[in-house]
């Protein structure tokens, strides 16, 4: 694979201004978080990212796009009171997300549609802060331990409180699914900005002001209860302190952070100062507290994050004191926002600021676990390309840029890329998606309110190398809806777009008869109906996200554009095939009997099933016994396998016709590869609704270990088909993986093999490297068990954390000491499988899948047929680096050529020559002979040499034989797929100035 490393795309990630978890922290909650847990990240350009931290994957599900001159300065989640359905069953309340940003408007977001649901504004000043009322909890309980219902007339929902620039605090009601004004509270003194606000309890508000004061209000009466003055700061020139942040502990203690760099603790009853800690060299911008009230986190403009703990009282003392246990600089610029989430098994806080990178840090296990940096670039790459025209397109905010990448040349002075077009969009909303046709003639971009199309053509004057951009008129029924996702088929004949209500629509693209060579989008759309799915109802305290889980994540076309598939966040996959009846056309119309002959029983509506266009084509659901089964986690990305052009098979959708078959599909066209958010690779035969033979033989447990421990989720996929090898390239923010799906993965080591088990343990990053494989004294099976992390990074390796007391103690029972055993001090009690839920189910299901995969791999001695159906293939001996020692027998699915022709690394040279440079390569691979490696093509390969990958797009299938430049590159070992790796490292991003320390 030939790679162009590109850093000329000026995509700028935006600063993080606000963070908010959808659920409050709770130490009484079991597991690693509720299924509806989400993290909202507010950016400076008005975008809101929704992250799912389920099982520690931290997956960016979607982005709620902002607009022109918009910014997110505050976020808050609420949950409505539970309701009852028609049968009297209790239903969980709806989770709602609100935001503010440099205006007098509070915006509620529709998570299902990805756009604002409603706004609330009034006759008050600019809003600076936002807070949600704590959830209702019954303080009284019945004799049986159950909570008493609320009193008559008591509101169980959550109000919103906003602080304004004129000193007013406005209370907004969220009752009845609306957002209405309730009351305003103003201090009697001069007007001063409300910088931060929080609730001490459901009826008391604590507000931080810009005049060195903290004020406490009662929202029921609107009265001012107390004013607390902080006094002057250490700098005498500054008369007033800015109280940037204020939070309350569960016992009511108030914690504040100010512009003097101090963190102060105030009594919950008389509001007197308890303690003050000078821990920052600049302003303290935000504070977060733990669920048990024993820990406090502060962050400031000095890039420092500090953690405080409430230590036990000293001998003779009656009160406990706060101490700073650690501080560290996780960020390179100001840290503006913090958010905490805790359960019994997870305890983390997330920080963000001007350096655009969210950082997940363990709270309860700080010092014992590593922190983790989340990607600052979008999960879905804002890139597209036209391989035939060598065009590279990037889009962000309200603009689209197009470059032309020239073919490689040995001359270093020649320019390798050139900006050939730039399109600026009018309107307020940012773009949600954009697509470039494979022939480079059509550009389609969309926001939440409209869709626009443009024709790209070379300039008439040859002196300028740019492109001429002409706007195309598209039907109003297409442009009026807007779109979340847009995709153009490989043959540039179909436009697929997903509306804000998650309805999939198809529009036909043709050549304009009046202007030769110019494409046009024909009127009339076909709505593709998704199969009805039953989604399990969540628990009452989890809240409900409605139909948000059915949000479509991605769209994929087959290589011949005859199949289209989509996947959503719930793990459902739907597919449609193109039925062609053009041979039945009579004067531009299809006879009524012929048009209805192939309709299935449930496709009675043309609008739902897809109406037949003037070309005699329509999109229909494949007929199979059951739809594609639901995956265990959300769909991350999808891609169809490349087709075999030499052979073909007929697709009739279950209806045979000797005179006019529907159309032909190449073998392999219907094989859809799906990657889930848990990095599980599955492959389906779309026309049959079943897993393929390769997927059944390669369950999740057979994936390479190095791939299963990758934390950052994949962003995209590319195919490199050459000869009989079918290489799937997956890439993430900083990594690149290659899998040859024409081969099977090696079977994992058997657990009963002691030598393999010891080797696996020695390779664990949490154990100290040891040259000896002998069992050390005191080693137990429990001590080698890797404990799960608390939601951030992995545990600190033992060989790096071997400080202080040991991790094990020797327990002796009896006088003789023969029953002595070593017990790990930090060994946790095994979790109850009933409380673990899906995690326990996955743990017990994987061994059974591995056993089934072994049976499927065994050679069958009865009958004849293809290898896919009967499994007639030779058992392979597995080697390191994904190679096999025994070549398979003749097969159309497995490679049968030397690795010099196939195994190219990312720089274009053969994998054999670069085996020493492959990160994580085993020492055994160095002792292999070149002859053996040349006969055994790699099953997989990976590298982590890239930084901040924005996306990877194809530019072509190598060079033609008649090209002089291509011939010279081919002589050097280059060839195959040609791609552009677009990198956006943080040192290339323009960031504002930061606080400079004295020693710098």
From TrEMBL:
Database matches in Pfam families: WD40
Domain of life: Eukaryota
Chain intervals for the UniProt region annotation (Disordered): 594-613, 759-801, 824-846, 858-936
GO biological process: maturation of SSU-rRNA from tricistronic rRNA transcript (SSU-rRNA, 5.8S rRNA, LSU-rRNA)
GO MF term (any one): RNA binding
Classification via PANTHER family: U3 SMALL NUCLEOLAR RNA-ASSOCIATED PROTEIN 4 HOMOLOG
Protein name: Small nucleolar ribonucleoprotein complex subunit
